[in-house]
Amino acid sequence: MRADARRTRRGGVQGPALRAVLAAVLAGVLAALVLAGCVRLPDSGDVTVPDDVPDGVGDAGVDYVPPGPTPGETPDEIVQHFLGAMRATSLQTSVARSFLTDATADAWSPEQRTIVYEDASRPTSGTTVSVDLQGSASLDDRGQWVGEPSGADRTITFGMTQEDGEWRIATLPNALIVPLTWLEARYQRADLYFLDPSSRILVPTPVFVPSGEQLASRLVDALLEGPPDSLTGVVTTALGGTGPGTTVEVSSSGLASIRTTGADGAPEALTEPMVAQLAWTLRQVPSVVRIRVLVDDVALRVPDGGTDFAVGAGQRYTPDVAGADAALYGVEGDQVVEVDGAATTPVAGTEELLGAGVQRIAVDLFGTRVAAQVADGSVVVLPLDDPAAPTTRIPAEGTARLSWDFAGRLWIVDGGERARLRVVSSGTVTPLDAPDLSGQRVTSMTVSHDGSRLVAVVGLPGTQRVVVSRVRYDERGGVADVVEPAQDLAVDAAGLAVLDVGWRSATEVVVLARIDDTLVQVQRVPVDGSPGDGDGTTLLMSDADRLVTSTSPGTPLLLVGPLLVEEYDGSRLVASEASAAGLTYPG
């Protein structure tokens, strides 16, 4: 396994199966988006790759117009050619519908979900035709990654009947079913920006969208649709729904005009959160420079009194947390210090920890509080900005994993082999039950700055999983619960010991795994569970057992070993001057 791991990961390239799934995902997303007219994708389906589809189909610049059914085709041929019709580069389903009965063609809704696959069996023959899918995955109607489909979706069944003397498909899933070999060049990752339940920070939701002239329209349509019901309490939106005939026009000067007709409850002006959501979502479109919203051809006012705003607006809602501290901290003896190269400066307000036997620390995102686990096992929280504020002491068992979010909530996972999760807010400690985390062995844990996602490494070495859970809040902004089930991230580390995980952006984590005594693997992993880019995995000669990460631009990724701290810039590993123990960035 380790030798195989070295071969598949060497040079920073992921295994072919993972790349295949990504290509399939992208293909599924594109077709579904075209069908739905917005950022939508199906999430269940079936597919086989016909032998008679010309080589090169799906490659950028190669057009393919599939043929319709021919007289006398058998049921398995009808299904095989129907699946081949999904590969039309014109991105339409009219040919595919010609393989269905008239009634089924009218009722079929492939925009509801998408199934993508790595390989597929040939269709069976008979009045019921089935196709087995291998390496399949699914996306929902917005383009969000859902993950592996259920067992029923891995084998797709088509009910066949004769109509006017010819075999046609009478029953099939309401799904687009597409192979993995095409459209990778046509799709890109993007984010829809919603808000946390308190509307104080943006929370990105990754989606797959097709590139091109319609990118702005597709992003706006999906954003105005709002978050799915499954994320109620996790995220919210300040924007209303799409009005009839909502369009987005981008002028040659880069002004994106979002036009809609007046709907019930349409705003008379845009609020700051509305501006932030639109600006952050549309800044992903290279041609867009400014934005305006028109209802019944009347431009809505924005907070500064104008009628349009720059795509750079809304910075105070940034997922990286406006005003966040980017310093590096550590421990010398029992003294918490700020680290700048080889120099260290004691942090005022942490003198209480002297003699306590500090084992690890976590600094909040604004550098105003420090949480430290000390020799007696407890976690001590010290306020640095208010000397009169009380110190909080929380009992803990075993090694505690500590993480802060933007709202000043401290997340603690402790309990040794049977982990427990607690959150500390305003001095109140609240226990939480987290599916796939509570009661398990947890090697590492970290919470996103926006407080919406909790990522953890769970399980025994060699069989570990890296999982992400979503956090739900009540109407007062208090932590309500952890949404179940947790989702597995696409970590390419089978049989390896996963050591640590940390945030590198609001939608991407870095995972550290050990291959042998001198070799580690560093992998960038999207937090939605989808496969990452092909160059996201790198092997490094290092004995590191811990990561130190930050989402702040320009901060180096640190690999910490028993004797050496190293900086990794994405291409090379160099020794760091930092020598303090317990190194950490805020968060």
TrEMBL record:
This is Uncharacterized protein. It comes from Nocardioides zeae. The lineage of its organism: Bacteria, Bacillati, Actinomycetota, Actinomycetes, Propionibacteriales.
